[in-house]
């Protein structure tokens, strides 16, 4: 068989496989519609249906990656299944998600990575506005940044948890790649200012020092705002990601200019529903201890004695008094796990105040 005949045969096989894939995806979608009907029929008067189950979605993605035999990698396979689940869920009940905007930010990319493109997403101007939208019930969930591997905690998010009673329902980890972007009218030999968010400027500090030491660095509200400004200026560039570049039609003058190649940001999914255990979970809490010697030691001892892994601890000024502080702590395990329950009970007895922000599945990828 000649090369052309082999190609023709392979294309026919691909066409047949595509038809089978479409049939199976449509069957899955019909099952999703049936799930919605069953849930609605089982509702009691005044009860609201829960269509999105974070623990179920996390299990599906982990299961798919466990049984994946290639040649597609786990991340690509998970991305494909995320979009299938997103589209099927939209048939049951379209999710509304608020995120820290404007369009083109890394937070929007995190929202789409977690929920897929079938959600109704709304950009908000500030982190506190995302919290307020969820509290008011205008959206089902919110997506906010909480920490960066290079620059540390996002304090506005931590402070918002002190003011609002919401539940953490999930987390997203996003590898952050920054590019130096220019527009069609940019004179690349005459760049006098570079726009970006303050965090992004900090994450690219060494690269900027080496390549543009004498160029003004202008901090703006977001990387998307930086990209928008460059669109209409001939002497400026922006540091932003792929989504902003696509949204504003900019090109890359330099790629992946972040100082650390493993630069990542962690985002939290906030909502109102508690998430059952999946077997691979994290819990976040806020603790306030008495202002006395050894207070931090007393806080950490129960975790050590029960072999619970702390993944993050941050300190923020308390709103209750001058020179008093609260601790934000993330650790491995679910609040319903016996060991975790024991630790939380002990902390509730020793702490001035304890607030469980939520237990949720670890980021799948």
TrEMBL record:
Residues flagged as site, Essential for prephenate dehydratase activity: 265
Catalytic activity from the UniProt record: chorismate = prephenate; prephenate + H(+) = 3-phenylpyruvate + CO2 + H2O
All residue ranges annotated as the Chorismate mutase domain in the record: 1-96
Broad class of where this protein is predominantly found: cytoplasm
This enzyme's EC code(s): 4.2.1.51, 5.4.99.5
A Gene Ontology molecular function term of the record: prephenate dehydratase activity
Function (record text): Catalyzes the Claisen rearrangement of chorismate to prephenate and the decarboxylation/dehydration of prephenate to phenylpyruvate.
Any GO BP annotation: chorismate metabolic process
PANTHER family hit by this protein: PREPHENATE DEHYDRATASE P PROTEIN, PREPHENATE DEHYDRATASE-RELATED
Organism taxonomic ancestry: Bacteria, Pseudomonadati, Pseudomonadota, Gammaproteobacteria, Pseudomonadales
UniProt xrefs under Pfam families: ACT, CM_2, PDT
Domain ACT: residue ranges: 284-361
InterPro entries, per the entry: ACT-like_dom_sf, ACT_dom, Chor_mutase/pphenate_deHydtase, Chorismate_II_sf, CM_dom_sf, CM_II_prokaryot, G/b/e-P-prot_chorismate_mutase, Preph_deHydtase
Coiled coil segments of this chain: 7-34
Segments forming domain Prephenate dehydratase: 96-272
Subcellular location: Cytoplasm
Record keywords, A-Z: Amino-acid biosynthesis, Aromatic amino acid biosynthesis, Coiled coil, Cytoplasm, Isomerase, Lyase, Multifunctional enzyme, Phenylalanine biosynthesis
Protein name listed in UniProt: Bifunctional chorismate mutase/prephenate dehydratase
One GO CC term, this protein: cytoplasm
Pathway: Metabolic intermediate biosynthesis; prephenate biosynthesis; prephenate from chorismate: step 1/1; Amino-acid biosynthesis; L-phenylalanine biosynthesis; phenylpyruvate from prephenate: step 1/1
